[in-house]
Amino acid sequence: MDETLHILPQFLRQALRELPPGPPVEELRLRAGYPLSVVRGGEEVSLPGWPALSETELRRVLETAGQGSVHTILDQLRSGYVTVPGGLRIGICGEGAMQDGKLRSFRRVTSLALRVPHGVSGIARPLLPELSEEGRLCSTLILSPPGLGKTTLLRDLIACISNGEGTEPQRVGVVDERGELGSGPLRRQLGSRTDVLENCPKAMGTLMLLRGMAPQVLAVDEITAPEDLQAIQEAAGCGVVLLATAHGGNTRELRLRPLYRNLLDQGIFRRFVSISQTEGQRRYTVWKGGGEA
User: Fold this and answer.
1) Phi first, then psi: what are they for 96, rounded to 5°?
2) How would you class 111 by CB atoms within 10 Å of its CB: exposed for 0-12, middle for 13-18, buried for 19 or more?
3) Can you list the positions of beta strands (E) in 138-223?
């Protein structure tokens, strides 16, 4: 958390220092006209006495993240969020500025969601026996609704495989298109045999790693486009073990979307991990490919 606080104005840093002991902060929610709220343990709370935020203060957060320029951040928008160095994802809402039918920037910013990256060491190791078959790691797809920790689990899974914790150590290539898996200090959390390609589209980066780094395992976050699927298909044909994430609670939900229906029909992933949450506790469920869950 301390490594990401530098993008916040001083008054917000001070507010966070007033938080009582508890679970790690997962998200910060900033809304114009309301106090700062934090999400931890799956619950969003705001402390009494915290003042309401203004649009000016929200823009100040973006200005700090953009190293002095709000436009540095706003002009990067493609999917409603941007990622700044260190892996911090900033989601943005407000009044969009459109050009030729496309969102180009924001005239007003009224809400920010800052998703704080953090490693949770040890959560993947108990899953590894279930992710292997005859002693070999299987290609695995991690599923959950937004905000339940797909990227956190993937990051720890990469580290375990790279360091040989609970499995044979292997070289892992990571395509980190948005800088959320291994950007900045996060790279040291991914293990000693991990090579990270940052700020490169998944489809292009997958092929670059295959040709140049000879990974035994290839990891990507959030399959979202047909070209991502094509690159994954090519990697699977090269004998590389694949690790990836997708939004969805189960394979039945994935099949409602043509891209993922095609992915499932290919049979590339032999294991699936779904993440759910009950009373603030994450639950990880593993099942084999070919089954529906």
Assistant:
1) -75, 150
2) middle
3) 140-144, 172-176, 194-198, 217-220
Q: What are phi and psi of 154, to 5 degrees?
A: -60, -40
Neighbours of 245 (CB within 10 A): 23
> Measured between alpha carbons, how far is residue 73 from residues 68, 78, 81, 104, 116 in Å?
10, 11, 9, 11, 17
Range list of H helices, 225-278:
226-236, 251-254, 258-266
89 - beta bridge partners? 83, 115
Task: Give the Cα separation of 61 and 32 in Å (integer).
Answer: 12
- Residues in contact with 289: Cβ distance below 8 Å, sequence separation at least 6, in sequence order: 138, 267, 269, 270, 271, 272
At 153 the pLDDT is 93
Low-confidence ranges of the chain (pLDDT < 50): 291
Residue 135 has what pLDDT? 85
Entry pTM: 0.75
In this predicted structure, what is the pLDDT of residue 101? 80
- What's the half-sphere exposure (Cβ side, CA atoms, 13 Å) at 261? 6
CA angle 272, 169, 184 (to 5 degrees): 80
Phi-psi region of 97 (alpha: psi -120 to 50; beta: other; left: phi over 0): beta
What b/e string do you get for 18-42 counting C-beta neighbours within 10 Å, with b at 16 or more?
eeeeeeebbbbbbbbeebbbbbbeb
In whole angstroms, what is the distance from residue 238 CA to residue 146 CA? 31
Q: Determine which helix (DSSP H) or strand (DSSP E) holds 120, and give its type and residue range.
A: none
CA dihedral 116, 105, 32, 79 (to 10 degrees): -40
